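Here comes just one.
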Amino acid sequence: MIRLLDWFFLSRPIVLIPSWAFLFAGYLRGAAKAGREPDPWSELFPAFILFTFVLSGVYIVNQIFDVDSDRENGKLFLLAKGHVSIPAAWIIAAVLSGAALLGAIVWHPVYLPWLGASVLLGALYSIHPIRLKGKPVVDLLANAVGYGGIAFLFGYSLTMPVTAGVAIQTLPYMFIVAAVFLHTAIVDRPGDEKAGLRTSATFLGDRGASIAALLMLLATLISGQLVDEPYPSVAALCGIVFFLWAVIVPSRKVSTLSFQWCSLAFVFLIIISIPPFGLFLLALVIITRMYYKLRFKLTYPNLDF
């Protein structure tokens, strides 16, 4: 039983929440453009399941290649401390990604470009020799395109055709992802440096990365107003105090507050439109906290208020 739970939590379901939120945001904005009420159960649920499988596989591959830096940062114990073997992790990742792609081919071929793009970007992000994660600025762009671009457009495509004009709508979403990513990179910087990993945060330093994050957040506000995208705009407003604080007093604590509050605001906006999503997340958080408390005597996830 413990091994099955280890395999499940290896997929990092809590970290999937932002990906789901961007998928749902795209779906909601597409439905709004179509001028009709969203119907998540029939239109969104199949995409949600297959996208979850793909992203779980992608995150597992990322952990495989990040095992040294994760060990230095004292997190993600399942691989770093050998609770799940690397060969087993590869098999789980392959099964999840393969099942998602096969499911798309059989049941929803229109999903295939988005799922395939997610698998490809995830592989390029983690796997040597390309490993976009180890290239400053490029790591930021990869995250922005993956979350704010691919995930959002996948959701949008469920109700409306994706055109060149629609791609402009992704700008505030990509900017807010870039802003949040920089603060997560600041938190991971000490371990990444010890592991010899070059990221945007190790390249810019904590203050430089905090300034860049603030500029990305301001770009979110401006572009969100220009293209009439409320979700990233409101989320940016909710986090801007912490982003300013991080520029004045750079620290891992303030960076954690910055990305947590901005992310939470975005997710809550989605929950307002899709309340069952909130109930699902509440159950997921409770189950995850029970698992980490019993397995590692840790309180996770937690908020740094």
In short: Residues 200-226 form the longest helix (27 residues). The chain has one domain: 2-296. The chain is about 80% helix and 0% strand.
